[in-house]
UniProtKB/TrEMBL annotation:
Residue span, ABC transporter domain: 6-244
Organism encoding this protein: Chlorobium luteolum (strain DSM 273 / BCRC 81028 / 2530) (Pelodictyon luteolum)
Domain of life: Bacteria
Parts forming coiled coils: none
Ranges annotated as spanning the membrane: none
GO MF, any single term: ATP binding
Protein name (database record): ATPase
UniProt similarity note: Belongs to the ABC transporter superfamily.
Keyword Nucleotide-binding: yes
Cited Gene3D superfamilies: P-loop containing nucleotide triphosphate hydrolases
Record's keyword terms, sorted: ATP-binding, Nucleotide-binding, Transport
């Protein structure tokens, strides 16, 4: 078996005097599509930030692509939960996505044809070609979410980390984000943080329930009801979304 893409052992993170992650042991392998669910404040974003090397463990270990977190920025795409920016800043969608190529550049190296072709490709893939010249500040929540996914994909990542990418999108757009992830999973390892338990448990290979400690379920689709109740400390129903029926199957 190949080395894991992410391997953590007894990972502890303490922030502001509080243990946010307690003794996480986790192995993520190439081609995995891992869903992470858990209550607000359970440590999901902190775990992603640890993988990116933005938060340091207080004890235990974490290795990413066999090395120190943060040592392979060009191999990881990150879709943050939200983007803080000045809505008046003159940046269009294509410009935002082009920034995703930065991790592949050497210091002061200029963007070239390959970068612009990659931007065209990911704008097409994410359905944003028609609004490539629209100002980022004018985008709807769902369009911005897609643009952030496109930016992450522009770097040609081997590992894609997504922090609640469907938080501010309508049901239609949500399905199209999941459909996009279904396409991408053939090409990269994916770790997806979401509160949309029903949708992700049907799609991922494994679900990790995170509330300071981590409980891994090998088969996402069979996530036991009791595990969710324990995780959220109240009764939880996973709402399973149905695939939209394609026009040629209607009336079957
Ligand atoms: N820099 C920090 N200093 C102190 N506490 C922090 C810091 N960053 C995060 N925390 C705390 O750590 C806990 C976990 O935060 P985190 O953002 O990882 O949770 P989450 O599971 O992603 O939550 P949500 O579902 O609400 O996005 C929270 O209680 C948060 O307040």
């Amino acid at each position: 078996m190949k080395d894991p893409v992410i391997a953590s052992e007894g990972l502890m993170v303490r922030l502001g005097g509080v243990d946010v992650l307690k003794g996480l042991s986790l192995s993520v392998y190439e081609g995995d599509f891992i869903g992470i669910v858990g209550p607000n404040g359970g440590g999901k974003t902190t775990l992603l930030r640890c993988i990116l090397g933005l938060v340091r463990p207080s004890s235990g270990s974490i290795r990413v692509f066999g090395g120190r977190p943060g040592a392979s920025p060009g191999r990881i795409g990150y879709v943050p939960q939200r983007l803080f920016f000045d809505r008046d800043f003159p940046l269009d969608v294509a410009g935002l996505v082009l920034m995703g190529r930065l991790s592949r550049k050497r210091l002061l190296e200029r963007y070239g044809t390959a970068d612009r072709l990659k931007v065209d490709e990911v704008l097409e893939l994410t359905g944003l070609s028609a609004i490539r010249r629209r100002a980022v500040g004018a985008l709807s929540g769902g369009e911005l979410q897609r643009a952030l996914i496109a930016r992450a994909l522009a770097g040609d990542p081997e590992l894609l980390l997504l922090d609640e990418p469907t938080a501010s999108v309508d049901p239609d757009m949500k399905m199209s984000v999941y459909d996009l992830l279904d396409q991408l999973r053939r090409r990269m390892t994916i770790m997806l943080v979401s509160h949309d338990i029903g949708a992700i448990s049907r799609r991922v290979t494994r679900v990790a329930c995170l509330n300071c400690t981590l409980d891994m379920h090998e088969d996402g689709s069979s996530l036991p009801r009791g595990a969710l109740d324990d995780l959220y400390c109240y009764p939880v129903d996973a709402i399973h979304h149905h695939e939209p029926v394609s026009p040629d199957r209607r009336g079957d």
